[in-house]
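Sequence in, structure out. First:
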Amino acid sequence: MTYEVLVTCNDGKRNYAIKRLKEFHDIKNIQQRKNPNEVLAQVKSDDKNYVMTNIVQRIQDIDGISGTSVLPFV
């Protein structure tokens, strides 16, 4: 299953955030959004709890990241 994590960056920090997100082995795809302060990270995992505790919380600890959220399935 693939989870989409919306990452909100501080002004001017998107490129740094992308560089840091590439360090995560669980993130399979990183997309820039129209909003210059947003990045969409696709995480492949069968366990939502793993995504929430190990991926989302680690992303939030990155300097320059102002927020993260797992997008709901449509």
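Second:
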Amino acid sequence: MEEILTTLILSAIGGSMVVSGITEVVKQNSKLSGIWVIVFALLTGVVLFGAIALVFALPLAQSLLTGFLTGWASVGAFNTYKESKGGM
């Protein structure tokens, strides 16, 4: 059980950089703002890891949860970085 949780968390952390990058590119090239940035990041993570699960025949539920955690981590990581960069 611990191994599964560790894999989920590490995959979410690694994938959050990719989802953050995709979200930033879309945000800069469109009028995406507010709550829709968070929704877009969550959907991007779920779609990305869902596609990975289908291509590599991985468990779908575990991959979708990883995608959700990835999207959530990417939004939180980016907002924390942005606040610390422009703050004080």
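Remark: The radius of gyration is 14 Å.
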